[in-house]
TrEMBL record:
Pathway per the UniProt entry: Carbohydrate biosynthesis; gluconeogenesis; Carbohydrate degradation; glycolysis; D-glyceraldehyde 3-phosphate from glycerone phosphate: step 1/1
Subunit structure: Homodimer.
Protein's recorded name: Triosephosphate isomerase
CDD domains the record matches: TIM
Species in which this protein is naturally found: Microbacterium aoyamense
Reaction equation(s) it catalyzes: D-glyceraldehyde 3-phosphate = dihydroxyacetone phosphate
Residues that, per the record, bind substrate: N13, W14, K15, G181, S221, G242, G243
Pfam family, one: TIM
Protein purpose: Involved in the gluconeogenesis. Catalyzes stereospecifically the conversion of dihydroxyacetone phosphate (DHAP) to D-glyceraldehyde-3-phosphate (G3P).
InterPro entries listed in its UniProt record: Aldolase_TIM, TIM_sf, TrioseP_Isoase_bac/euk, Triosephosphate_isomerase, Triosephosphate_isomerase_AS
Compartments it resides in: Cytoplasm
Gene that specifies this protein: tpiA
Source species, domain of life: Bacteria
Amino acid sequence: MAVNGRTPLIAGNWKMNLDHLQAVAFVQKLHWALKDAKHEDDSVEVAVFPPFTDLRTVQTLIDADKIPFAFGAQDLSTHDSGAYTGEISGAFLSKLQCGYVIIGHSERRQYHHETDEVVAAKVQAALRHGLVPVICVGETLEQREESGPTAVSVAQLEVALEGVPASADIVVAYEPVWAIGTGQVASPEQAQEVCAALRAVLADKLDADAAARTRILYGGSVKSSNVASFMREPDVDGALVGGASLVVDEFAAIIRYQKHVGV
Ligand code: PGA
């Protein structure tokens, strides 16, 4: 656990990669890769976010082999059940023992036209079913140039937190759109500036305790070679990793780094 009391969270967003058979091999290999590092302590929490079709398989494996990874889904429906073809209910996810669900990833906002209001409704759906929402916010390069580094993320988080009780268990992820999958990483200072602004939103919309306890992740081209620089920032409590979470040794190195710096 870090000195600030927030356990770092390293989350792997697989996006539409790895089928359920590949998922088994991946989780087993990652577990083996980390075994030597004795990661079965509370110095860092590891979570994987496979596609929906892998969740049952991943849950069964994690459960059977007592693998200390959390897991979650990449999205959920705003509705709990009914005539919504193709949608997945939070009720199903919590029955599968998902701990987390990613909400409002920029790829959902961009390709599926998810508005801030839809994101807020999904946050409510997650909380109704005992899932921890990983609320993603972040600006495009155009928006950064137009309104500065923090305005878009702050506004997105403010809407997402509508109706969220101060006691809710949530995670926030700052992912500048211009840094996702581009190799164009934000500087640690840029990440810190926005994460600090997001923590201020938590204090304002929820309360001081929620701001102190809620983990804020940075995401966007995180690799083993740069994770340390982000984790040194006081308001960055972990990473949401895309591409580098699909390579066992690289993802293990990102997780292991946490241990070695003793955060
Ligand atoms: P990336 O993706 O690490 O491949 O940039 C991050 C994300 O989209 O969560």
